[in-house]
Design a protein that fits this description.
binds zinc ion
Length: 342
Amino acid sequence: MKAAQLIKHGAPGVMEVREVPNPTPGPDDVVVRVRACGLNRLDLWTEQGELPVPITLPRTLGGEMSGEILKMGENVRNWHVGERVAVQSNIFCGKCEFCLQGEESICLNGKLLGVQLDGGFAEQVLVPTAALVHLPDAVDFKTSAGLTLAGSTAMHMLTKRTQVCVGDWVLVIAGASGVGSAAIQIAKHLGAYVIATGSTEAKREFSKQLGADYAIDITATDWPAEVRKITSKRGVDVVVEHVGGDVLLGCFNCLARGGTIVTCGATAGREVCLKLWSFFVKEQKLVGSYGRNRADIKATLDLAAKGVIKAAIHQTYPLDQTVQAFADLRDRRVQGKAVILP
Ligand SMILES: [Zn+2]
């Protein structure tokens, strides 16, 4: 089969589409014929070798895949060849205390498909059966690949790590990103007022098309002031943050008393200096969020099947153009999602 493999780390790294052996399923695994696989910032970090986990090269990246079951191991029950599936890329052990609570993303023995294990920028991928999620008929492969990782991350943030209520004010950082574009739609579905940020007029307009009530310029010197103005100085109840660095600190200047910042990324800086006094006096919360559980993927795909949320797909690429897709995401030319069709 063909796979786009990372040979050497870098920005850009060295990636090659080449012929590799077909995967063979173990007793509890399946092989999925990949039909679509979304590209995420996580893939760029993997490419650059900037994740705090050991990665063996060559490695096939890509964790946001959908496809059909092609082969099944001898112990596999309740699934059938040809069945349409999405995949939980936070591979979990199913046995540790967190897995037993359904918290797969914080499994003590967790591994990431497309990082520590070969992922979906390939014609076929090996997946433990426990990580499969049935793909509803009404959701096509492309849509699934545009929502399974980024969309379900937003779902996990807005419904598990914090609970957005009707009438809440929600600030979505980088509304035109994969996580941001899903977060806008989910927050609107939950009945919130949404303010999105964007660095260009096109990105702000895109956020509004997805349902954001307001879209503000994050490159403005005092962008939090704009949020306070929109909310009549009150601030927002929830911030969906996935950038880190100074942007995260700026979010505290947008946050209402009792409000929550939920964060799942640190592209712009992994260390911040937090002003503790205003943090505890205003009884604010800073909540970490990592990946998703299968329940979040199911909830996301159910909303997609009902047409409530849509995958904001910027462009699709054949497997041969995986390198181009990485370049487009790295150079911030992507609004919403880039999806590879192997
Ligand atoms: Zn576990």
